[in-house]
Write the structure tokens for this entry.
Amino acid sequence: KNQVEQSPQSLIILEGKNCTLQCNYTVSPFSNLRWYKQDTGRGPVSLTIMTFSENTKSNGRYTATLDADTKQSSLHITASQLSDSASYICVVSLSGGSYIPTFGRGTSLIVHP
Amino acid sequence: NAGVTQTPKFQVLKTGQSMTLQCAQDMNHEYMSWYRQDPGMGLRLIHYSVGAGITDQGEVPNGYNVSRSTTEDFPLRLLSAAPSQTSVYFCASSYEADNYGYTFGSGTRLTVV
């Protein structure tokens, strides 16, 4: 069964610190991996999308990495801000015309002043 | 503003009632989809459409119907509401199913009593 596991489930950090969120997946054959940020009470917002051939993608202070061999991805947040407090969701899609992506349960990040 | 518009934002239904959740996008996206988000679970795909006149089932389609008569609109119909359909529903769109991040609406919080 295709699965996406995210860790940690929740994380608390101080403003200005860096952090790294993890995503492991068993989805195969792999098409792409996306990271989303979801603020409380809002819809998810796309941060990055990476295909099989890409191993890093940045969006401002957010940097995603992908190791397709080990089926692992990470999202690194640099110099965290209070506005980074949100749930971060990893999503993996199959190749071959399947349009049903697999969503992780998300990592809840809280940034304290 | 360009984006995905969902209505209503909140709804309370009695068991057995029917209703339609509206979703509209003005970005000329071909791909549209509906998800439900439940506590402690990842988003799950209900139905999706790769273009006007084309719809297909996702992971959890039972109890829901969709249609796509225009590129812009993708309504989700609950045929006979059940308490198990209490959830937050998100509509999302993209240029195509793969290779692009999704744009999500702000969600509809549905309670079935």
